[in-house]
Design a protein that fits this description.
This protein has 842 residues and is α+β, with helices and mostly antiparallel strands. It has four domains: 39-253, Immunoglobulin-like, CATH 2.60.40; 266-421 and 447-575, TIM Barrel (Alpha-Beta Barrel), CATH 3.20.20; 598-708, Immunoglobulin-like, CATH 2.60.40; 728-841, Immunoglobulin-like, CATH 2.60.40. The protein has 14 helices and 52 strands. The strands form eleven sheets. Strands 1-2-3-4-18-15-14-12 form an eight-stranded antiparallel beta sheet. Strands 32-31-30-27-21-20-19-33 form an eight-stranded parallel beta sheet. It has a six-stranded antiparallel beta sheet with strand order 34-35-36-41-38-39. A hairpin with a 2-residue loop joins β1 (40-41) and β2 (44-48).
């Protein structure tokens, strides 16, 4: 029988290291005291005072793990978030008198156990401002902070992109209609980036209890992270560039897997399309109006009495026939499948009956816990048990056999209507089964420990179930609640937003911070879930969403129609145009998705991720340019920071040469100008520039998008769904490099878009390059194919932007072909021979 193990009673507040008290000195920062030789370990250090033990281990030369625990009671070496191979990684370190060093970092420990982390050049990257406070009320870690520090991450918390000066709580919460100041909301991702003096660290606090982060709200000279219980176990990831930190976080917790291609297409949803005829009408309207689309989502009204894993036979007769008919029109059906199971004994409800028979539900006071959700009284699976996840996964079998393409895990904070907290009580008990991969011992745990991972483990069960049922088909799961590492199991969205201009504005920083927190595949309810958007608001939202990872139009009951054809032909034409552009860009988007599946770099990116040194003083350019972001590595989307404002607004481009995506116009932003404030502080300053911003005044239907010089963007002919074979060549849109010394590059990746066959070589990858010669010729090099997948195209169409030919001809494979003059440049179509070739435009 398992015993309930509570968090250990915490000793008094730690203030002095007994072992090293005689070494204490106010000059410690300048002359660190030596540690006892016994403190050094092969991978770092371990040092104790009378009550506590500090352990610091180097997992890699640029990754440290820091743990603090009561003496003789080591913290459980376990994690729901960190991959086992990363959590147990180690390297040998070089002992030093006050700590140790690696090939990248130096760690020093003060007599009171305060840590200082520096690079090998002596730049302090992070330092404890106070000794760690460890009391019966919890722990607090306090770090020094300067006025020029910047913080990013923590998932989709509302508010500005930069978290500096803000404070947050991690406690997954059902937050319908959240506002900019609402906290907490749906997710708990206790990972953030700290940027200081052009150097970036990442911090993951791996504690699943309610945790707290204060980035200078209480004290501008400090930032803190704390928890009332659970382990003090955190990871430090060193850049110095922010992109490297994100790649390391993917190494630590796993990247977003490569999604099925259809999930990157346009999705249409509503709470709820019902009855069946309405679903069929929406599908027919999309195809009739030639609005490209790949997914139709079904919310809870398709279910019988809102009971998950059921179908209402009256409103949705012949459900398999509906799914089949949608598939015949190239629509993928995505079904909501909430985790709460109706408490319905003796009612022939298989999900309940099988769960009770095999004891799959959480307990309270020794009895199955019951709480009210959509079906009324409901019971809740105990997802910390492997057997429960396997049982829950089996519930998808009938829907998968019917042809459902994806599943939507909603209400999994878990949401419970019974209480003001809108979740289950703290004393609900979960049974951790003790799996080797996570490292947890079999034991009971109160909900206070499990709450923040409950939604993640729900999505894990769903994904594992789909992989069991269809082992060679990439699953698609969307989850509302999750924890760090949850990107391994599901995509996500920002929850129940509102149809307001402010929520449209908030979407960009939310999705950017989600991407920085591991969730590359994310979106927001386009048009706003609650309330009714004005025609212009819905149009602007659909325009912006065309350049976001997930493009799903979704609305609540009682709101006016959200579909693209709502509001008449003028608005529909604009909306269709942007959805069509998304489909033309699918080769570029899919290539970017494949990149993120390898290295964790998100699909949409803050400016500082691609241009970390774009400003004169190295502050993130994003703070000057709210509303701007990179879509993949090469496209910069510059939406208005105040989308309902009719006035012109500033666009801040990183230094360099740029092209207008829509017109091909060249913008040279290379001039060296010193910003006035830097000149006043340092009259001798030279070098980096901050040019005056561009002023733009787009009309409705215009969204400024720019491409950096030297980019190669793969594009395809327009299709109505990802299952339709494009008719024509694959376009390689080449944006001429800024000068002859700078090459241009671009990547192309493709596969069958559905299976895991790419793991066995069934893919195609090209790394494309081009140059401009001194005589003005543009040379594009197409290398040998990597992989053995045969793509849909047989020709390449080369479109050169920012290039002026002398002879208006192209030569390749010994043949000369005239160039076509297009609206944005010059083009030529050549065969794709499947072999390396060089195309020269003269």
């Amino acid at each position: 029988m398992l015993a309930l193990r509570l968090a250990p009673t915490r000793p008094r507040s730690l203030s002095v290291c007994v072992l090293c008290a005689t070494l204490a000195s106010p000059l410690f920062a300048q002359a660190p005291a030596a540690l006892p030789s016994s403190a050094h370990t092969p991978t770092g250090l371990q040092l104790s005072d009378s009550t506590l033990t500090l352990r610091v281990d180097a997992l890699r030369s640029d990754v440290l793990r820091v743990r603090l625990y009561p003496n003789n009671h080591p913290a459980e070496d376990a994690s729901w978030a960190v991959l086992p191979a990363s959590r147990t990684a180690s390297i040998a370190v070089t002992p030093e008198p006050a700590g140790f060093s690696t090939a990248d970092l130096r760690v020093a420990v003060a007599p009171d156990l305060r840590l200082t982390i520096s690079d090998l050049a002596g730049h302090v990257l992070q330092s404890d401002a106070l000794p760690i406070s460890w009391t019966p009320q919890g722990f607090t870690v306090t770090k020094t902070k300067s006025d020029v520090d910047h913080f990013f991450g923590l998932g989709d918390k509302p508010g500005p992109l930069d978290r500096a000066g803000e404070a947050f709580t991690m406690w997954n919460s059902d937050s319908f209609g959240f506002q900019e100041s609402t906290d907490p909301i749906y997710k708990s991702i206790p990972f953030f980036l700290e940027m200081h003096d052009s150097r970036t660290l990442g911090i993951l606090l791996d504690n699943t209890y309610r945790t707290f982060f204060d980035f200078g709200r209480k004290n501008t000279a400090q930032y803190t992270f704390s928890a009332p219980a659970g382990p003090l176990d955190y990871y430090i990831l060193y850049g110095p560039e922010p992109k490297h930190v994100i790649e390391t976080y993917a190494w630590l917790t796993g990247p977003t897997p490569l999604p099925p291609l259809w999930s990157l297409g346009y999705q249409q949803s509503r709470y709820s399309y019902t009855p069946r005829s309405e679903v069929e009408d929406v599908a027919a309207h999309l195809r009739r109006d030639k609005i490209p689309a790949d997914g139709i989502w079904l919310d809870i009204d398709y279910q019988y009495k809102y009971r998950p894993f059921t179908v209402d036979p009256v409103t949705f007769p012949d459900f398999p026939g509906l799914i089949h008919n949608l598939a015949a029109q190239h629509f993928h059906a995505i079904l909501i499948a909430d985790l709460h199971i109706a408490d319905a004994p003796n009612q022939n409800y298989p999900a309940y009956d099988s769960g009770v028979a095999t004891d799959q539900f959480v307990k309270q006071n020794g009895k199955t816990y019951v709480g009210d959700v959509w079906p009324g009284p409901s019971v809740f699976p105990d997802f910390t048990r492997a057997t429960t996840r396997t049982w829950f996964a089996s519930l998808y079998k009938d829907f998968v056999n019917d042809g459902a393409a994806g599943f939507w895990d909603d209400m999994n904070e878990p949401a419970v209507f019974t209480y003001p907290s809108k979740t289950m009580p703290d004393d609900v008990v979960h049974r951790i089964s003790g799996e080797e991969a996570e490292g947890f011992a079999p034991r009971l745990a109160f909900h206070t420990e499990i709450h923040n991972i409950y939604g993640m483990e729900n999505s894990r069960a769903t994904q594992e179930g789909l992989l069991t049922l269809q082992p060679n088909l990439r699953p698609f799961v969307l989850t509302r609640a999750t924890y760090a590492g949850g990107q391994r199991y599901a995509a996500t969205w920002t929850g129940d937003n509102l149809a307001t201009w402010n929520h449209l504005r908030m979407t960009t920083p939310q999705l950017l911070n989600l991407g920085l927190s591991g969730f590359s595949l994310s979106g927001a309810d386009v048009g706003g879930f609650g309330g009714s958007p004005s025609p212009d608001l819905l149009t602007r939202w659909l325009m912006l969403a065309a350049f976001q990872p997930i493009d799903r139009d979704h609305a609540a009951k009682g709101t006016r129609p959200h579909e693209p054809w709502a509001d008449g032909p003028e608005q529909e034409t604009i909306r269709r145009h942007y959805i069509e552009e998304r489909y033309r860009l699918l080769p570029y988007l899919y290539t970017t998705a494949e990149e993120t599946s390898r290295n964790g770099i998100p699909i949409i990116r803050p400016l500082f991720l691609e241009a970390p040194h774009a400003t004169a003083d190295d502050h993130p350019l994003d703070n000057d340019a709210p509303g701007e972001f990179f879509f993949g590595p090469s496209l910069l989307v510059a939406a208005s920071p105040l989308p309902d404002d009719v006035a012109p607004y500033e666009v801040h481009l990183p230094p360099g040469v740029w092209y207008d995506y829509w017109t091909g116009a060249r913008l040279d932003r290379r001039e060296t100008l010193i910003s006035r404030d830097l000149e006043l502080r340092n009259p001798t300053a030279t070098g980096k520039s901050q040019l005056p911003p561009l002023m733009v005044h787009p009309a409705l239907g215009d969204l400024p998008v720019y491409v950096h010089a030297g980019a190669i963007i793969p594009m395809q002919p327009l299709v109505q769904s990802t299952e339709e074979k494009p008719n024509g060549p694959l376009t390689l849109r080449v944006y001429a490099p800024a000068d002859t010394s700078t090459p241009c590059t671009g990547d192309l990746y493709t596969d069958d878009g559905a299976t895991f066959d790419f793991r066995h070589g069934a893919y195609l990858r090209l790394h494309l390059t081009c140059t401009i010669s001194v005589d003005g010729a543009l040379t594009l090099n197409i290398p040998a194919r990597e992989g053995d997948f045969h793509p849909w195209w047989t020709q390449f169409r080369i479109e050169a932007i920012g290039f002026t030919p002398h002879t208006a001809q192209a030569s390749t494979n010994g043949h000369t072909t005239p160039l076509d003059h297009t609206d944005v440049g010059y083009a030529v179509t050549v065969p794709d021979t499947g072999r390396p070739q060089t195309i020269v435009l003269h």
